[in-house]
């Protein structure tokens, strides 16, 4: 039972890591390798707002999400727009920017016990004989809310519909007056905001450290590769596969084998079905 | 030169370039020198440099050659459309093969380095076989996470010394020997890659980059070719890793670190992609620069990234292409009309 519950929580955490990355890639075809850096940067921003400016966590958390979104927007507008359309250059620029952010944070000495965000609600509850703290339940709930909210957003708002139009066909979207640069920048801002929301929810579970940024990026990439980047369903399936696989490996083989699960999943999925479990969309053109 | 209204810049090949492209090059010393100087001068400088540099800067030279080898191997993969973000995979595999052979079987460096070169190439292409069907961003993603995951595996399972690493490996009998192995290996790799990519064999590899579907329809098995390319690039990276292991006489998890993935890409982006000479120039510029910045510690990687972004945005063609254009062509201002 605890396997089921902790596997579920782990899977939702992985899905939270991936959702922003997947959104940005799905809309504008931009693989944002700075995703992990934005994730941990938002945690750092929230921490600084709390401890330097003395704001309560609720306010600083919301501000951190907004600031990260603004950083994502500016990042697109200042840097990526200049290399847009050259996949290699886009990749190198986002990756380099991500590593630069992470290394700058490490250099500033951003690690250690004192950097941690408070949990929303203290205490825990026992479900079917397994003790869970409230924060992990909040993670579950926010994962659910985020996925549903995102679905409603892209299906029922103007910007969301413009996002989907861009994802389906950029030129047709241009011809009906959707400006692709603007939407691309917005998509990166949304991806960054989603990373920040994930950070606000997940980071209170542990200590913050700048190297977490690399882990988040690795997991997001692993989930995206396993599930197929373009489909939300694939993303969820990928995160559940890796999430439960990790918990099961930790339980039955040993905790140190947890890190091998994403690698094994990638190798297995790529050799069986190179486009990912649910990667039907643009299967032939892009991946293989 | 200030921009004038109604005028534009016009670029023309120098006369000597037009003549020396053909057999007339043998006609005069001037033309032979025109062709030879850009090729011979760097080689001569690189071969003579170790005799004049001090102990410290010789070490820097060895680093530059090692990073240069990684940059060359990156450029070679990029020439067949495989954009890797994980040169440290090749580097680390070569380093662990050489270090392991030396530590557990006490083989001397002159035996472990060739073994690590060949076996590293084979192992890397085997490791990347399932990934080879991927293109572009997807290939980059997998190559980025592979070395990081291998590092975690070594960290958690503790194989090959785990986090402690393997120490007191045997070094080279003579300091100069290791320097010259690095320099000669680097130059050999540079000219070998330039030669390979210009043969018919290299033509197929470049065609895979440009349009893999049409190469397939020509009846060529592109996956087999890609695995050969991975072997060649992996062998160059493995050689660099093995050399570094014996030069340091120490082997640790840090061989899979991001440094070895980022710096080669930065070097190629700075120097210019596609000619190998750009990769060589880039690493020869970037590594001494990073040594000069050594006092800044962890900030160095952030600075590489800054160099990378600025050079991609400001000089997308790279330093080498810019130099080559200045060497071969002259500009003049003509009236538009």
How would you describe the overall organization of this protein?
The complex is a heterodimer of chains A (288) and B (337). Chain A has one domain: ABC transporter involved in vitamin B12 uptake, BtuC, CATH 1.10.3470. Helix content of chain A is 73%, strand content 3%. In chain A, strands 1-2 form a two-stranded antiparallel ribbon. In chain A, strand 1 and strand 2 form a beta hairpin. The longest helix of chain A has 27 residues. Chain A is globular and about 60 Å long. Chain A starts with a helix and ends with a helix. Chain B has 337 residues and is mainly α. Chain B has one domain. In chain B, helix 3 packs across helix 4 and helix 4 crosses helix 11. Chain B is globular. The relative contact order of chain B is 0.17. Chains A and B meet through helix 3, helix 4, helix 9 and helix 11 of A and helix 6, helix 11 and helix 13 of B.
Question: Reading side by side through the largest sheet of chain A, how are the strands ordered?
Answer: 1-2
How widely separated are the two ends of chain A? 40 Å
Largest sheet composition of chain B: 2 strands, antiparallel
Order of helices and strands of chain B: EHHHHHHEHHHHEHHHHE
For the residues shown, what is the average pLDDT of chain B? 84
Quickly count the domains of chain B: 1
Q: Specify the helix fraction band of chain A.
A: over 70%
Question: Judging from the principal axes of the Cα atoms, what is the shape of chain A?
Answer: globular
Note poorly predicted spans of chain A.
281-288
Overall number of domains of chain A: 1
Number of strands of chain A: 2
Strand portion of chain B, in percent? 5-15%
Order of helices and strands of chain A: HHHHEEHHHHHHHH
Largest interface, with counts of residues having CB < 8 Å to the other chain, equals: A-B, 41 and 41 residues
Helix segment tally of chain A: 12
CATH class of chain A: Mainly Alpha
